[in-house]
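Table S7 (text form). Paired inputs.
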Amino acid sequence: MPSASSTYIAASANRAPTSACRLSDGLVAFGSGHFVALWHSSDERSAGVHATLPGHQGDVTALKFLQTHLQPSRYFVSGDSAGVVRLWEEQQDGQWTTSAVLTGHTQSISALAILELPQGQGQQTDLLVLSGGSEGAIQAWRVSAAGAELLQKIDLKGKIPLEMAMSLLPDSSSIVLAVGSTETRIQIFSTTTTDKIDFTKALSLEGHSDWVLLASGSQDNYIRLWRFSRLSHQTTAPPTPTTTGLEALDELERALDAPLEDTGAGELRVKAHDWRLVGDGEFSCSAEAVLLGHDAWVTGLHWAPRPMDDPNAPAPLQLLSASADRSMILWTPEESAVDPSSSTAPTKASIWTSARRFGEFSSATNLGFFGALWGTMGRSVLASGWGGSWHVWRCKEEEEDLENAEWEPVVAVAGHFAAVKSVQWEPEGEYLLSAGSDMSTRLHAPWRRSTDGQDLETWHELGRPQIHGYPLASIAFTSRVQFVSGADEKIVRVFDAPKVFVSSARKLSGVELGDEESRPMAADVPPLGLSNRAIANTAEAEQLVPDSKDPFDQLLPVNFTVESHPPFEEQLLGSTLWPETEKLYGHGFELIALHSAHALPIIATACKATSSEHAVIRLFDSNTWKPIPGQQPLEGHALTITSLKFSRDDRWLLSTSRDRTWRLFERRGDAYVPAASAKSHARIIWDGCWAAEDSFFATASRDKTVKVWTLPSASASAAEWSCAATLKFEEAATAVAAAVLPKQSTHILAVGLENGMIRLLTAPFAEPSTWTPFLTLDASLAHVLTVTSLDFSPKAFPDGRLRLASGSDDRSVRIIDIAP
């Protein structure tokens, strides 16, 4: 039976403090566009994202795992920009499925919290799920085997909840809820669990001077610690206060406005504030400490996890924070403030210090961190960056003192932060290039090495050849070490591989790309420029460093070292550019499509067009980078040309267009001339492709069909191309690619659809008019939004499998292996 498996998924994290969470066993779940990506961050193989979970109809904005102490959690919740919350449960086979869908919010989900409700022995687990919406409301749900029940709606009076945290109160089964929102106070709610859950407001904690992001980090750059404790074990209803509830609340808020007292002993104290929970006694909240170390908004806080080898041991008293200042800080209290008999809390308001600072300070394009997640056993830390890539630091295994230990960066996960518009394999299929609307091209290649006597191959991003000033639309390799790109500008840019990449490809992937010494060392982008300039050697790089006393300016702009591992995010941002060698002009509007001939030194380009005047194809000589002498622009289309494809023997050039026509141009002598055309689709034709041996071509259209076109014989004239098959689908066909199943001598056609699915069909060599379904790649293996580009690898594998690369509007790049 034919099968398909995921080899590589490049995906970036959404830009939100709450859009990622992590389990104690190393599993990270993070929002990436419309799906949830799963990544075993503690995997020593550095295999990256291993699965994605479809289901959301908007960008995932919040995620939370159910926190458990004795075993890894089997539940997490995710919320999206459409206002929908999904509860995910892990099945026995390790797969995650949706067990409940919670609706009711009218705007984006901004915060989530989940807690396991106390149950009697032998009773099934009930979960309490709280969701905060941008409309300024919190919904409380009980989720059980019987279904989901909405318990309560809490109106926040127009304030947007940005983060929520729930916990059981000390020595109690009652629940306390802390809500940080778009105000300077932290709102504290509480409820008992003996009867119907009903959260009531208990306190408002003052102190921050800007929006609170997490209890309790804020946009005022401060972190505040708050201590909750039980004052009494009284379980009956206390006497009614002499003041009304609102008056008592106002009195507490006025008291909390009072400044902190300086005791003269190096301690900051504040009066404790108490509240009564009907049926469960009195509790107290007091300020523990104020931490200042970040220079910008605090975007994430997490306490250190409990040790995995001893789940009953208390968690170490360590706090990890992330900030928009491009740093993470590991905080610990002074030893004198900690009770030796307990590591769960200081004995008094204490002074906390910055024990370790992590960051990527030499990268001007890294605009901050989100998340601040702990790794396995607290020996690694993780955060996502402004561009969606992950940053990981790990403590060396032999180190026991985490505060004074040596931490080192680790290979992590990266991906495009906007729609992927084009993917293409290099001519021999050893590595893949992708272009996206995030103004970058990214080069994906295998990391081949031997580990414990076994050969291991994992795929990673090995370079960002172009970090552009415009959203990219199309790319094409002209050789193994050169490509051209078109973007939302009128220029085609040409890039050549530098020595650093050629050396890295040889060392990491085992791929020989020819002479290294004649190439420039690397490239960088000059200030206020868009063209990558070549850097010949280290001496030239040193001359480019600005004359400044600022220590950050003294760092070299490029790292020339060829490491034994894939580059980290900081290196990808500035040290993997390719020199730009040429610019091609001629088009009047944004570039949309381009393609390179296979054997001839020719590239074809087309731009956006609203009239036939600009809907032309221009041909350039890739040896001289000038228009081909005597070759006039190819006319015929009336609107934007959406794709260009040369046949394998370069005899034909196929173009498809928004005007619902395809056109063929045939090479006669030294020029291409119009040869055939047809208006056979009812809607836009998005893409076209050629068979491996040019026996047919296919066109994919918004009219939900793919049509296969053939010639009756090899000697037939160009005008005799006719439709041999019409393949119908449930969604618009947006991308198409063809290959051959070598062991079966059959054609295979991959069709990407508007809903993200990929359909695979086969046909015998002798009958390209007869197509049968082969495989369907659904949203769990393929994409969740429009498939924009497909390309089969030309590399032949001994076991006969095919390798398919795909790009999508869902921002992911995927490599899928297909076994016949």
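Next pair, protein 2 of 2.
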Amino acid sequence: MEKLLYGVAYYDEYMPYERLDTDIQMMKDAGINMVRIAESTWSTHEPQNGVFDFTSVNRVLDAMHEAGIHVIVGTPTYAVPTWMVKEHPDVLAETKKGPGKYGARQIMDITSPVYLFYAERIIRKLMEQVSGHPAVIGYQIDNETKHYDTSGPNVQLQFVKYLKEKFGTTDALNKEFGLAYWSNKVNSWEDMPSVVGTINGSLGAEFSAFQRRLVDRFLSWQVDIVKEYRKPEHFITQNFDFEWRGYSFGVQPNVNHFTASEPFDVTGVDIYHPTQNDLTGIEISFGGDVARSTKGKNYLVLETEAQAFSNWTPYPNQLRLQAFSHVASGANMVAYWHWHSIHNSFETYWKGLLSHDLQPNPVYNEAKTIGADFNRLSPKLVNLKKQNKVAILVSNESLTGLQWFPFNQKTELNYNDIVRLIYDELYKANIECDIVHPGTESFDDYSLLIAPCLYVASDELLDRINSFVEKGGHALFTFKSGFTNEHIQVRTTMQPGRIAETCGVNYQMFAEPKNVKLADHSYNVEVNENEVHTWMELLIPTTAETLARYDHPAWGEYAAVTGNSYGKGYATYVGCIVSRELLAGILQQALERAGLCGTEQHYAFPLIIKSAVNEAGKQIKFLFNYSWNTQSIQSPYEKSIELQSGAIIEKDQELSIEPWSFFILEIQ
């Protein structure tokens, strides 16, 4: 990117009255230099089958170009028009819940030949209209694309073809998936039942992986069409989202971000997060780290909130804090859903940058300061590079595996809870990290690799991690790691299977802890924070040292946390789910062993420090205060310039960071 982009989604079609010129003037006043259009309005662009009307698109493109505002055009394929469903009801996805019903977005079968025919036609018609327009800088493919649990007969047929290609024979399939159990054995491909009702976790998880591949294929197919029209300088992106818990939370179960992002020039994401007293910056950071790690380069925030829900209406200064938090993780663009608060339908109370009266308001006025600073500071903050020495290994396969085989039947705790438990504690300790995945070729750029609940893993992946440790790397495994192979077949060796030698530990039994604490450890926690819950493995060290054992009359002879020197490296194994306070101590110990505790680790949340290198080769330090209390810090850096104010900051100079505010230092 040549500059930071600051933008909004803008749908002229949603406006209650004519105000395009007014909106554009307000955008220019706010420093908005980019809008997203077209992705949500297929029924406007093709009101009847084969009848096309791009009047609204063209008038917005012309007006934005005249105003000097860039445009990203979205393919409008994620919300199908009524006429299509009337003529072809089978374009709606059949799921485990039965046939689809029209109304919501993202309800189509992305493998339907009929849907794909109409989707290709609207994409080509749209591209013919917009690809030569000087306002356009890029294209967004679809919107928050997933497989929508499509699993009807046509999808089942494709799945059988996929299984035949992968396994060759039903005998091989039966063996790998253990289908003899409960007489699920398939003796001919023609007898293969729908997987919707399967009780076999291996088969069910394979179908989930197949569904994620459908997303890869669908997005790549659209990219290939758009590439036929786009100019060389135009980029193609997609706005990936995350597991949703009322906000962006964890690894997306229905998309593999790493494989799905391959055909794109730049990864885009939608990141929504709690605000007001609950604003921590963690979701901004996690989503950004995933997006940046997919391609190892800068990314675009295509959607984030301005006001949104009543419990998200930002306090003064929070909108600025949020915007620059995205930049600190490597974002080259921050854009809001939506420009204005919509006056009807599903998202009426998901408020935009403007409220329902469409007039300036405190949030819009704060956005004006962001737009001005993005423009002024772009030469210093665009294309920031990050070099992290800690990586978290995330796995869609393990996520799916633990959906099939949860920790116990009484808990809703899942894979993403453990990923976020680890990520959150690293974040709060000012440890920045990358996100890697099972397909990552090498972990050698990192000093510490953390593998949370790597329940599903091939021998080859575990051997790569073992080799990483043997060559001098540090690894931290949690419980449930290495338990099954890539087909969710439990390994028949003593657990943790293929990593047992590296970790210097094994176990045969696990239990649900009741009134269990940890003993004989060096983690500085209060008694009531010294809890083990939900899951515990009864570890027996072979060559490992015991870093903590269970404090319990029945389980006290077993280790809970172990550490083992292996080759030139060191492996920590955490055999239980612990409190946040205990985990923070375990992580701190692993970081110290890996030599990763530096200047920033003298500070902790709510003072968050992010580091990067700008295009001039200068170190940039973001100092964020996510709290109501003023945070004080003596600058640990050599002479620097505070980029917002231009003030010179000397080493050891006292800095007071106001509530919900921040400093940006460029080290000289």
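The first helix runs from residue 20 to 29.
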